[in-house]
Amino acid sequence: MKNIKWIFVLYSLAALLAMVGIGLAVAFRSFPMIFLAIILLGVVMVMGFKKKRSMIEAGLL
What we know:
- By secondary structure, the protein is mainly alpha-helical.
- It has one domain.
- α1 runs antiparallel to α2.
- The longest helix has 27 residues.
- It is elongated.
- The two termini are about 10 Å apart.
- About 5% of the residues are buried.
- This is YlaF family protein.
- InterPro entries: DUF5325.
């Protein structure tokens, strides 16, 4: 592992926090928060994959 891409570390931490949010929302039985956390997780994952694709196309990965 020569060079860390810090943007991907941030995306992974954001996804981790969204997953923790899902768990907390389930524990509190809050259906709106479950829904929002799942949407947030999806948005973060899509953003991360789009960033990775754009970096691959630019030759940075």
